[in-house]
């Protein structure tokens, strides 16, 4: 277990917490390799149904560690070594189909914003301040920032956000669809965990397939999407969870899903 990336798993919820608060959780090599390690554990754990990303202290994440890159003799090599592990982790997490939630507060900049945009649902504290920030340090996006941002707000608005690097407060992020909810700072953890547990209590296969259908919807034509929906529904119809859902609905009770 990395000292700067903490993992706990309870009741189907895997909580990844970045723990470098003295540096506003800025990504250094220990954090990116630590993140890759905990993601590998998560995707291999069949008990996990949802993932929550959070940052310790007064910021979710202020981007990459510029001091780490400044000190490198070969900065191109250092950048590759720093970014590649977190990209590998994000691909693995995305391919797992697990829903990902992010709880963000304070500074959410650069790679921190990209990680937030990667999440399927985002709960923001009232003091959250979002900024792409990459061009301020002479670099383009990483961690899927341009990919996620364009899909969330469209290319025109994405260009504005990425090229101007203007600060976006929590209310503005909500209006743009960059976050789902804004809550008082004191309620951030509880609100996010409540959503995570609600999702974790649902049917795991149907949840992952629904996430996949939405994530891939913009890359398919309508006929291909209908075909994918058909196959997803058929796959779920053969599960015990589907039978449980039918019995619960007809019996007017709450279903209990087991993942079978």
Describe it for me?
- There is one protein chain.
- The chain has 260 residues and is of the alpha/beta class.
- The protein contains eleven helices and nine strands.
- The protein has helices spanning 29-43, 66-71, 75-96, 111-118, 145-153, 155-164, 170-176, 188-200, 204-216, 222-237, 240-250, and strands at residues 5-10, 13-18, 50-55, 100-104, 107-109, 121-125, 129-131, 168-169, 181-183.
- The chain has a six-stranded mixed β-sheet, sandwiched between helices. The protein has a three-stranded mixed β-sheet with strand order 5-7-8.
- α5 crosses α6 (155-164).
- The two termini are 30 Å apart.
Give a nutshell description of this structure.
The protein is α/β, with parallel strands linked by helices and 260 residues long. It is built from 11 helices and 9 strands.
Q: In terms of topology, how is this protein built?
A:
Blueprint lengths: L4 E6 L2 E6 L10 H15 L6 E6 L10 H6 L3 H22 L3 E5 L2 E3 L1 H8 L2 E5 L3 E3 L13 H9 L1 H10 L3 E2 H7 L4 E3 L4 H13 L3 H13 L5 H16 L2 H11 L10
Parallel strand pairs: 2-3, 3-4, 4-6, 5-7, 6-9
Antiparallel strand pairs: 1-2, 7-8
Helix pairs in contact: 1-3, 4-5, 5-6, 9-10
């Amino acid at each position: 277990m990395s000292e700067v990336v903490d993992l706990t798993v309870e009741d189907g919820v895997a909580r990844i917490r970045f723990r470098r608060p003295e540096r506003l959780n800025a990504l250094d090599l220990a954090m990116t390799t630590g993140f890759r390690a905990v993601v590998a554990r998560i995707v291999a754990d069949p008990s996990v149904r949802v993932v929550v990303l959070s940052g310790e202290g007064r910021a979710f994440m202020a981007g990459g560690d510029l001091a780490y890159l400044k000190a490198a003799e070969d900065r191109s090599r250092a950048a590759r070594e720093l970014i590649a592990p977190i990209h590998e982790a994000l691909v693995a997490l995305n391919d797992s189909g697990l829903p990902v939630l992010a709880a963000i507060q304070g500074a959410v900049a650069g790679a921190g914003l990209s990680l937030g945009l990667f999440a399927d649902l985002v709960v923001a504290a009232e003091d959250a301040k979002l900024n792409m920030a990459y061009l301020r340090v002479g670099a383009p996006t990483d961690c899927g920032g341009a990919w996620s941002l364009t899909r969330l707000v469209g290319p025109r608005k994405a260009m504005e956000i990425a090229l101007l690097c203007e600060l976006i407060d929590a209310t503005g992020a909500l209006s743009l669809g960059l976050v789902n909810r804004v809550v008082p700072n004191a309620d951030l953890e509880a609100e996010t965990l409540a959503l995570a547990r609600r999702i974790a209590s649902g049917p795991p296969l149907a949840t992952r397939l629904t996430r996949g259908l939405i994530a891939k919807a913009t890359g398919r034509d309508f006929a291909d999407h209908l075909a994918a929906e058909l196959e997803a529904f058929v796959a779920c119809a053969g599960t015990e969870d589907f039978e449980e859902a039918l019995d619960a609905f007809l019996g007017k009770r709450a279903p209990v899903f087991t993942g079978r």
